[in-house]
Amino acid sequence: MADRTALREKVKRIELAHRHCRQSLKDGTFKCTNREIVTLVAHLLQVDHGDYNESIAKALSIQDLAGYLPETYVKKTSKSEKLLHRKGVLSDWADLEGVPQPQVKLRFAKACKACPTFGAQLHVVKTKLTPSAKNTEMLFGLSKTDVLLVHVVSNEVMKKFEIRSLTKWETTETSMTLVFCDNDEVSFTEDCHSQKLHLLPVYIPIAGKKSESFRLFPHNLHVKHTF
C-alpha cells in the first residue's frame, strides 16, 4: 500500500513538473537555443503522439511545431530555420522510440531545467563584451547560481559569472558595479531617458545565504565590462 502511494506521488510530481515546464516553454519565460528547441519539441511529440509515426510526421507542419513555442519564435525565426528545426525535431523524436510517457515527461522537465536561462530573470541591456566592441543589445540574466549575458537572437550564453565568486558591489542612484574574484568587473549605468524608468527587483543569492534582496535597478541599462 505504501509503495503504491509513493508511486502515485512520484507520478504526480512528474506531471506537475512537466506541465510547469511545458507552459514556461510556451510562454517564453526562458530562452532556448536552436539545439534546445529541437530537443524539447521532440520530447513533446513523444508525449503527445507516442512513438514516431511516419504518417503523423509527414502531416506535421512547421506551424504545428511552432505551436509548442512562444509567439516570438513564430515572428522572429526564418522559414529556412524552421524547416531545419522540423528536420531535427523529427529525427530526435524517432530516437525516443520506446520511451514511456512518464519517463519522457521527466526527461523533458530535466532538459528544460538544464537550460541556463531556466528560472532566470532576464532584462534587455546594452553591453560591450570586449573593451573595443560597440554597445550591443543583450539579455542580462540572474539565475540562482549565475549572472548571465545572453545573445538576444541565438539565446546563447555569451558570458557567465558565478554568483558565489561575487566579491563586492558598488551602487549609485543610476548605476551598479559587480566585481568577481577573477577580477572580472561588470558595470551597469542607467540609459539616458526622458521618462522615469520602471524599477525591477533583483535578488542575488549570496554565498552562505539562501537569498537576499540585492538592488533595484532600471530595466534599460548600459553594461560595461573591464577585464
Notable traits:
227 residues; alpha+beta; eight-stranded mixed sheet; two-stranded antiparallel sheet; 7 helices; 10 strands; 40% helix; disordered C terminus
Structural features, described:
This protein has helices spanning 2-27, 34-49, 54-59, 62-66, 71-76, 79-95, 101-114, and strands spanning 121-127, 136-142, 146-151, 157-162, 166-171, 175-180, 185-190, 199-203, 213-218, 221-226. By secondary structure, the protein is α+β, with helices and mostly antiparallel strands. It contains seven helices and ten strands. The protein has an eight-stranded mixed β-sheet with strand order 4-3-2-1-10-7-6-5, with no helix packed on it. Strands 8-9 form a two-stranded antiparallel sheet. The relative contact order is 0.12. Mean pLDDT is 78; it is low at 188-227. Helix content is 40%, strand content 27%.
Question: What is the compact description of this entry?
Answer:
With 227 residues, the chain is an alpha+beta fold. It has helices spanning 2-27, 34-49, 54-59, 62-66, 71-76, 79-95, 101-114; strands at 121-127, 136-142, 146-151, 157-162, 166-171, 175-180, 185-190, 199-203, 213-218, 221-226.
Question: Biggest sheet, in brief?
Answer: 8 strands, mixed
Low-confidence stretches: 188-227
Overall geometry comes to flat
Distance between the termini: 60 Å
Kindly report the spatial arrangement of strands forming the biggest sheet. 4-3-2-1-10-7-6-5
Instruction: Output the radius of gyration.
Output: 21 Å
Percentage beta strand: 25-35%
Topology:
Blueprint: H1 2-27, H2 34-49, H3 54-59, H4 62-66, H5 71-76, H6 79-95, H7 101-114, E1 121-127, E2 136-142, E3 146-151, E4 157-162, E5 166-171, E6 175-180, E7 185-190, E8 199-203, E9 213-218, E10 221-226
Parallel strand pairs: 1-10
Antiparallel strand pairs: 1-2, 2-3, 3-4, 5-6, 6-7, 7-10, 8-9
Helix pairs in contact: 1-7, 2-6, 2-7
